[in-house]
């Protein structure tokens, strides 16, 4: 199948390579010339801009965006709109907010273009293992995209989850669950690391948990790998970013009156990781000293 790939970063570049390995013809574009050159070296057709990308594909074209959520998606769509003929399909494979996806879908529909939202999971491992794809859009669009989806995903690794917007909605909740899972593993391993009675080998524990334990998982396989590389994680700073999906999940849960305490606390734990010094903790220490004469530590 002939496809235009817009965005050749860690995800887009690897997806392009996987598609090329699967026999697809990929025209590639990224503002970063080095990324385009890397895709060309793997067999993609390099393009210098969106007009060249669209012009080199059969009409109406199928395009796949792997660009950061937010303004970059809107800017890309605005640049593409004058170039796309009715019947074109534009896939947003990034982590867009589903509210934005619904808005963009209405805009594109007015021009005869269908937006397909594809929640994409698999990270840097997707190149070899395949990507889990949660796809929202019409049945006709999915039928047209099926050769690409089959190549990108492992067996039974993609699903048509509903109309446009549903793909990003499902991926949002997926990432909210991921927040809570990561936090649970983090707390457990921190307890093991902090033990005063035992000198525990975290790599060995992670390895045995992955052999038959009820807490075995791919995430814990990655923990085993990380501890094998650095048993005490001394090369890392405990600073954890968030890319938005956890916040969106919690806001949606509030709107639906659905309790999600584990996901919420996991997000707030990430906020705490970014503080060199917690002023809130200082307040608690000061108050305990005031009402109970409890000891404090000087800065």
Number of strands: 8
Strand numbers in spatial order across the main sheet: 3-2-1-4-5-6-7-8
Beta-strand content estimate: 5-15%
Tell the overall outline: elongated
How many helices?
13
Helicity, as a percent range: 40-55%
List segments where confidence is low: pLDDT < 50 over at least 5 consecutive residues.
none
**Rg (CA only):** 23 Å
Order of helices and strands: EHEHEHEHEHEHEHEHHHHHH
Q: Please describe the biggest sheet, giving its number of strands, its sense, and whether it closes into a barrel.
A: 8 strands, mixed
Q: Output mean pLDDT.
A: 95
- Helical/strand content category: alpha/beta
Distance between the termini: 63 Å
Question: Could you write a compact summary of the structure shown?
Answer:
The model has no long low-confidence stretch (mean pLDDT 95).
């Amino acid at each position: 199948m002939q496809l235009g790939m817009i965005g050749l970063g860690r995800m887009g570049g690897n997806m392009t390579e996987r598609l090329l390995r699967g026999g697809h013809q990929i025209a590639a574009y990224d503002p970063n010339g080095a990324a385009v050159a890397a895709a060309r070296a793997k067999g993609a057709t390099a393009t210098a801009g969106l007009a060249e990308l669209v012009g080199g594909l059969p009409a109406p074209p199928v395009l796949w965006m792997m660009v950061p959520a937010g303004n970059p998606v809107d800017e890309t769509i605005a640049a593409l709109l004058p170039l796309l003929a009715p019947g074109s399909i534009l896939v947003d494979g990034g982590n867009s907010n589903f509210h934005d996806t619904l808005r963009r879908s209405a805009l594109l529909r007015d021009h005869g273009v269908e937006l397909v939202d594809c929640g994409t999971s698999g990270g840097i491992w997707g190149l070899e293992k395949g990507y889990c794809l949660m796809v929202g859009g019409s049945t006709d669009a999915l039928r047209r995209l099926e050769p690409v989806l089959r190549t990108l995903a492992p067996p039974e690794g993609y699903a048509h989850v509903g109309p446009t917007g549903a793909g990003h909605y499902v991926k949002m909740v997926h990432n909210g669950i991921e927040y809570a899972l990561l936090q649970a593993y983090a707390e457990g391993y921190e307890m093991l690391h902090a033990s005063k009675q035992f000198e525990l080998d975290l790599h060995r524990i992670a390895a045995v948990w992955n052999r038959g334990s009820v807490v075995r998982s791919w995430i814990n396989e990655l923990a085993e790998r990380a501890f094998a590389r650095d048993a005490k994680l001394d090369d890392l700073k405990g600073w954890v970013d968030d890319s938005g999906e956890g916040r969106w999940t919690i806001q949606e849960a509030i709107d639906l009156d659905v309790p999600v305490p584990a996901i919420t606390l996991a997000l707030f734990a990430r906020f705490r990781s970014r503080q060199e010094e917690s002023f809130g903790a200082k307040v608690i220490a000061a108050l305990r000293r005031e009402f109970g004469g409890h000891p404090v530590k000087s800065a």
